[in-house]
Write a structure and sequence with these properties.
Chain lengths: 165, 756
Amino acid sequence: MKENGLLLMVNGQSYEFKIGTGPGEVSPSHTLARTLREDLGLTGTKVGCNKGECGACTVLLEGTPVLSCLTLTVECNGKRVTTIEGLEDPETGELDPVQQSFLESGAFQCGFCTPGMIMTVKALLGDMPAPTELEIKEALSGHYCRCISHYHVLDAVGRAIGKRG
Amino acid sequence: MQREYRFIGRETARKDGLGIVRGREKFIDDLKLPGMLQAKILRSPHPHALIKYIDTSRAAKLDGVKAVLTYKDTPPWKGGLPPHLGVLSNVLRYTGDAVALVAAETEEAAEMALDYIDVEYVPLEAVYDAEEAIKPGAPQLYPQFPGNSFPLACPWMGENSLQEVAMGDVERGFAEADIVVEGSCRYDNIPNPLPLEPPGVIAAWEGPRDLTVWSSTQTPYFLKMMLHYTMGRINVRSIAAHCGGSFGTKAVPWQLVFYAAALARVSKRPVKLFYSKAEHFAAYTLRLGSAFSGKIGIKKDGRVMAVAGEWLINSGYCSDAAQGMVAVGCGEVQLLIRCPNWAVKPKLVCTNRNASKMVRGYGGQELEAAFLPVLNLALAKAGVDPFVFFKQNYVKPGDDYFWRDGNRWVCRGIDYSAAMEKGAEVFGWKEKWKGWLKPSSVDGPHRTGVGVGVHGNADVGEDVSEAYVRLDPDATCVIYSCVSEHGTGQRSSLCKMVAEVLNIPLEAVSLAPPDSLVNPYEFGPVGSRGTYAIGSAVIRAAEDAKRKLLSRGAALFQCPAEELETKDGFIFRKDDPENKLPWKATGFDQTYMGYGRFEPDFSVPNFVMIFVEVEVDMETGKIAVKRVVGATDVGQIIDPQSLLHQMHGCLGSAGLDSAIFEESVLDKKLGRILNPNMVDYKWRTFLELPVFEAVILETPINTHLFNSVGFGEIVTSPAPSAVLMAVSNAVGRFFDTYPITPEMILQTPGKGRLKA
């Protein structure tokens, strides 16, 4: 990587940015949420509070859920980022089992919190073969949903675990 | 007997479900227009002040800044009810009131420019409590509203909009009562409905009098009309993005539009304004502050003889819907209680805090949360079980009430007693109810208590809806109904209704985008009106289109149209289904357009009853909601998942939890909201979910083809007073204010000595 440069691997694709304050450049103060949404057009990552309090902007950084509104883009140099757009199979468009489960359980109302929750559940199920209900709730406890879709979300997580057999 | 349907009542995936789980649905902050500027607002640091001096010249010279506006150079648009707020003013009426507007190439540039606006303020004395605001000598917010009192008329609800509950002779009623209580209760913790997505708009002028607005509204056509009237009769095209939760708050974001449109006019560029969470908390929409103080007389058997009192409503620094909420609240309280003698006088007051505006519960929640705890004092004296009381009192077919239009309406809905009884059975009310101020169980410092609340709304048939349905030659159809998706699944449910009428696959039905340029008039999905009002218009439009199709088919089959039917895009004789012709055979490239309209009907109240069980820890003061049962009867379920979602919603949007921990903490010295963030404003997490059971009956209701009634809006309303009742029973004392805090529990006299 060149000096003053930045390499991001987002959803399996590499993106190079120049660090700076000019148009199209990534400033050291830019958050990952901003870079994803504004520079890469990946608006599936939602920003609810922009202060790390609502969980909406959750993405995976090297497979671990992070709040992209509190993560600086420059911290992600050379790292793998997965967003909601990167979960489905790029060739076939087939949904990830977690997405499929949310769809089947109808685990959303307005849908603004959904991408963040799906990313958290994706990471949880990657780490744990069979999380308990308490572990599921603990993992999701940083996600704010004002419509109250929680019960359907828990159903969806159960369904996703079931899909893995 | 229930009819069997192909789609209605069955689980079907939301039309936008795939878009949501893939992150492809576009919300307002996801939209970008070429050349679009970003807006930021300089906000008042004072709760009440005059702008003595303001100079924007330094800000205007900054790189990237394209427009800076103050009260001196904004257009003469006026909003509020009655109209009392311009775009900007030299009088600032709450901490956070808009002082100046900036549009710039980037958010950062706009934000920075705010620091370069030079302002001198003259601070004025401020007032926060409604009781103080109406006293002689109190600081006055508007010269045209002496005593800080708004007129109660709500012209768009009719010339005689309901402004009080007045009937019979209360003195005679009190004389006839066995028990008369006096009391007061305050529900003025101004919780924030707080959808996850903050509000936002984009405004672009297409011509000097032609404005296009994109927003996160749930009611794009209604917004168009409101802007038309408040912005000098201009032509507005209103387009809704996918709405990230509203609960009423985003229906008519006229102030955001004023700000963005004023900047767009000067800069000649599209302007986007998207609020930060702090603005969403401290400068957007709160619930009304509400306090009831009065006298209630009942017979020993629980019949209510007279209700008299004052309902004091605090709307904050302005009002744009409060009069309507007062009217609806006055109507809703009559649905709860059969009483021949009423004298309840509302008083609507402005104070120097952020505004209360349209919110789910719409007046009824606010009145009932303050009124029912006073009624409970009477029921407790009489030893009447509140569940039995609500069951006896809730409006029945043939009962009458005065609704928001000031007219007397007779209920032609159904008797909800069966749903109440089923709810009580599932909850175990009989076993858990031990009498007033008695816990259901005691285990060391842990005491459980139960409470119940009821609510209903005749607004399910409010206002006008219009729709078109177009049948296409390829055996698909398009619905034109100006409804945006705000989480209730309304758009999908409308598709189900049309698919059912036309008997075509759900995949063959689509809904035009929520754009006022394309669609006919639609008041929008508010007040639980989606199912009955919007549904009726859409069903009629589908039936009309079908009629046109079949009458064309009649010529081909050489039989009366009544003898024909259609399924999956084919027409056939009912007595000979095998001999069929496709829709396209009725004419070369022929489409059919059907039209439907719904007129207001306030005769079918809906209903929900909420039972709650709480556990109170007398040593720590912690209140845990352990179990909730919601009971309703919706006539016919349209979409099971969406309906259940709406029921669960009673835990959200400044509903149930406004009884125990949700509040906007207003510092009455500084005039600031102290908790405008999602850490200090408390919300229920996954870890604190109560057990939730829903009882949903389907007794056909005389509404439309599917005998169904809407439900979503009402579920938060009965919850706060039910929780208050449950906590009272657990700890053995009444409360007269919200939220009940751990501190209040710990101050309960004799808290440690209670015996089971």
